Amino acid sequence: MRSSSRFLGALASVASLLPTAFAQSSTPVTYTDAGTGITFNTWPVPAGSQTAGGFTFGVALPSNALTVDANEFIGYLQCSSKDATSTGWCGVSLGGPMTNSLLVTAWPAGGDVYTSFRYATGYSMPDLYTGNATLTQISSTINSTNFSVIFRCQNCLSWNQGGQAGAASTSAGYMVLGWVQAFPSPGNPTCPNQITLNQHDNGMGIFGAQFDSAAANPSYTAWAAKATKTVTASCGGPTTTAIASVPVPTGLTYDYVIVGGGAGGIPLADKLSESGKSVLLIEKGPASSGRFGGTMKPDWLVGTNLTRFDVPGLCNQIWVDSAGIACTDTDQMAGCVLGGGTAVNAGLWWKPYTLDWDYLFPTGWKSADLAAATSRVFSRIPGTDTPSKDGKLYLQEGFNALAGGLKTAGWSQVTANNSPNQKNRTFAHTAYMYSNGERGGPLATYLVSAKGRSNFNLWLNTTVKRVIREGGHVTGIEVEAFRNGGYQGVLNLTSITGRVILSAGTFGSAKLLMRSGIGPADQLAIVKSSTDGPTMVNNASWINLPVGYNLDDHLNTDTVISHPDVNFYDFYQAWTKPNTTDTSKYLNGRTGILTQAAPNIGPMFWEEIKGADGIVRQLQWTSRVEGSFDTPNGKAMTMSQYLGRGATSRGRMTITPNLGTVVSDVPYLKDANDKAAVIQGIVNLQNALKTVKNLTWNYPNASVSAADYVNNMVVSYSNRRSNHWMGTAKIGTDDGRSGGSAVVDLNTKVYGTDNLFVVDASIFPGVPTTNPSSYIVIAAEQASQRILALAANAPNARYGQCGGLQWTGSFTCKAPYTCQVQNPYYSQCL
Ligand SMILES: *[C@@H]1O[C@H](CO)[C@@H](O)[C@H](O)[C@H]1NC(C)=O
Ligand SMILES: *[C@@H]1O[C@H](CO)[C@@H](O)[C@H](O)[C@H]1NC(C)=O
Ligand SMILES: *[C@@H]1O[C@H](CO)[C@@H](O)[C@H](O)[C@H]1NC(C)=O
Ligand SMILES: *[C@@H]1O[C@H](CO)[C@@H](O)[C@H](O)[C@H]1NC(C)=O
Ligand SMILES: *[C@@H]1O[C@H](CO)[C@@H](O)[C@H](O)[C@H]1NC(C)=O
Ligand SMILES: *[C@@H]1O[C@H](CO)[C@@H](O)[C@H](O)[C@H]1NC(C)=O
Ligand SMILES: *[C@@H]1O[C@H](CO)[C@@H](O)[C@H](O)[C@H]1NC(C)=O
Ligand SMILES: *[C@@H]1O[C@H](CO)[C@@H](O)[C@H](O)[C@H]1NC(C)=O
Ligand SMILES: *[C@@H]1O[C@H](CO)[C@@H](O)[C@H](O)[C@H]1NC(C)=O
Ligand SMILES: *[C@@H]1O[C@H](CO)[C@@H](O)[C@H](O)[C@H]1NC(C)=O
Ligand SMILES: CC(=O)N[C@H]1CO[C@H](CO)[C@@H](O)[C@@H]1O
């Protein structure tokens, strides 16, 4: 999924400001508090479009903190309330992003300013921080429009939450900080351990906060001694209510259980149920599209059959309000609603470049093998370049400015899905999966036909904890209610022949494998020592596979230009204060700007660059009408460069002790040739756009070379991800149990099992050219055929082999015999 710069500056994480921040715009302002005499380095966010009322955070550091890393500071927070209400809350992230950093939150209540240390591993209500950070107040003020607190923060510059550790180094001369503020008060405001926070609605951002010599002060110790006040909690309010679950009905079994209703699971649900088998699709989240009972929508959609997910122009709302939508168990943004990524993304829909399959995939999964599956997918979801039902494209000034330059420079305009293999110096209008002016895609096609069959069932709000295995054979799954109405208990598969397919995504499926005792030894040890430990499958049945390795994503490098013709449209306002001309056009005829994905994407363009290592690397550029870094919206366009097929860097995803997942090793720019392609791509684009009159390069600007720009840009998932995560359960013939890199075989069956499959982005050996949704749907079409063609599992006779390190046959035995481990290499039906 694309991450808009709003997101990059925001909710999630990120250091969209990092490249500049380090160079310039975060110079501190010295502020001496009149009441205490303490001098701070502060970085005020002025009242204005970024935040109403303004926000200031400042620090005073121990005297030697600029040479020796400190682990404490005196902090200054000044935050705004709305309209004389003395309410609201604010917070800072001491590491920058919202996730995996120590968060300090503050809010006024009953004359005091309360605080709470928090830690988030996903984009949901942050957990209480469990480390020994200590906050003691020096002073606080509350008036009708602002609240402020000066506090000593000990053990605050390094943190550790359940084994996830991080730190901020004061001797580096800067910190990367994140801030948020919001108008509504927290729930349970006088009980910091039990607060509930509304999503921040009054701005957020990330910046590099530079220190000057006034940051550290010889008076620090004397100042710190003034910290004597702790605000006493008053609890007793209601705590969080339990989730209402439904027990798994007894006696129920299914031939196929598919875990995860996204780009992989939905097509499978359709194809497998079409074959007559009984099929259950389990989705962790609630319904999204109005078609299946979704209800989340802005006021102007009330009374229609549409939700926020159905209207293309509202797709970026996810970056403002993701409560109840984003997955809460991963540090990356993922959609935990019916449809998964295809419900929340910008809907980009590309006919695959055949070289992607041919270069990345093993024999059996080459483009020729996938031709029929590709036709089936594109006959059901043809996609469109002109989503508005009147056939017009709206607000194309930005497109025209850039496309004109590319054309003059000799790049060719193509209709992307008519010539999918023309991906070198070509440009195109954006192709979307939309139909009828609505999102469409797999939800509107495959799931509709599946839902019409009596042998198909769908469980929402239900999370799968693990598969239950007897050796290499899955007998059932253990489910838990994730939201109200979800199921709880153990669901059995059809005896002997039943199958489970994991389609829970690159993080979700990998985690499920690990919780089921399948993965690298270090990861299974973490599961064993977690709350799962006592009920985890016996270690004699663990299957060592390289789950979580080979993590890949399009490396994103944002560039920014401005041009006087560019016409910005505020898609965020389309949620709160929509232009009624535009909503009427949309509601009455599915026409106008709201049929196009936010934030007005295009042109799309591509280039292939051959590296010194002989490998051709694919670049895709996604332009969109919005500013990034400190270039404001208005006349700016961001052109995001994705490094795709050919990139050789890979990373790793791992599981945490609290059973979340993190990107523990980012897959970006470990190889000089990968970096050279990124730089060359920017140089080539600068040259191509040279003839565009009145175009200004903001990032990189005229005085910064492309090489310096790329070399100085931080390499972190927060500012470089595209959220096209793939690869954690790679497909291949080199069995990972014997040192190979593959987790699933060519039938997508997990090595060492006879009825467990993975079909989603995790099986991809690497990222393709474009946004991957269509590729995942095609892979699912293909997998459905291969899985249906597999002979039914047949139990072994008495004395037959039924397991062992290299075993690829059936792991079941004819009654009354059972499969018994003789040694790691041999199990026998006895
Ligand atoms: C160009 O960008 C660099 C780094 O972001 C900045 O330091 C410099 O001031 C900018 N120059 C101009 C002319 O804007
Ligand atoms: C926690 O930190 C405070 C402040 O540094 C210290 O006084 C206290 O002893 C620490 N407690 C533990 C359990 O480490
Ligand atoms: C409110 O408090 C702030 C300090 O937090 C102060 O600067 C401001 O002047 C006060 N405003 C009023 C109206 O008292
Ligand atoms: C699943 O199968 C087991 C063993 O055959 C049985 O005890 C259990 O009741 C079944 N569960 C359900 C929900 O039917
Ligand atoms: C909403 O209703 C229209 C008109 O009947 C239909 O074409 C469209 O598919 C429906 N969309 C959803 C999301 O239900
Ligand atoms: C799923 O949970 C959502 C949010 O709590 C709720 O609105 C919806 O009714 C639930 N759906 C089902 C099928 O229980
Ligand atoms: C497996 O578990 C047993 C018993 O809990 C333990 O003694 C043994 O060391 C474990 N083996 C591995 C490889 O973890
Ligand atoms: C609303 O959008 C239309 C174009 O659809 C535009 O002409 C009009 O100026 C906009 N109105 C406002 C108040 O922005
Ligand atoms: C891409 O096109 C350019 C311009 O025609 C050409 O120089 C370059 O070799 C092509 N790249 C590859 C990998 O073929
Ligand atoms: C460039 O800007 C100048 C002055 O701002 C204007 O007169 C001219 O028309 C512009 N040219 C183009 C091609 O936009
Ligand atoms: C220092 C100060 O007063 N800051 C802000 C307090 O809030 C009002 C309105 O919300 C702002 O106008 C002030 O700038």
Per-chain topology:
Elements: H1 5-8, H2 18-23, E1 29-32, E2 39-42, E3 56-60, E4 72-80, E5 89-93, E6 102-109, E7 112-119, E8 127-128, E9 134-142, E10 146-154, E11 158-161, E12 164-167, E13 174-182, E14 204-210, H3 220-224, E15 246-247, E16 253-254, E17 256-259, H4 265-274, E18 279-282, H5 341-344, H6 354-360, H7 371-380, H8 397-408, E19 412-413, E20 426-428, H9 446-451, E21 456-459, E22 462-470, E23 473-481, E24 487-493, E25 499-502, H10 505-515, H11 521-528, E26 555-562, H12 573-576, H13 580-589, E27 601-610, E28 616-624, E29 636-643, E30 652-655, E31 661-665, H14 672-688, E32 696-699, H15 706-712, H16 717-720, E33 756-758, H17 773-789, E34 801-803, E35 819-823, E36 826-829
Parallel strand pairs: 15-24, 16-24, 17-18, 17-25, 18-21, 19-20, 25-33
Antiparallel strand pairs: 1-2, 2-3, 3-4, 4-10, 5-6, 5-13, 6-7, 7-8, 9-10, 11-12, 13-14, 20-27, 22-23, 23-24, 26-29, 26-32, 27-28, 28-29, 30-31, 34-36, 35-36
Bound molecules: 2-acetamido-2-deoxy-beta-D-glucopyranose (NAG) (11 copies).
The site of one 2-acetamido-2-deoxy-beta-D-glucopyranose has 3 residues, from loops.
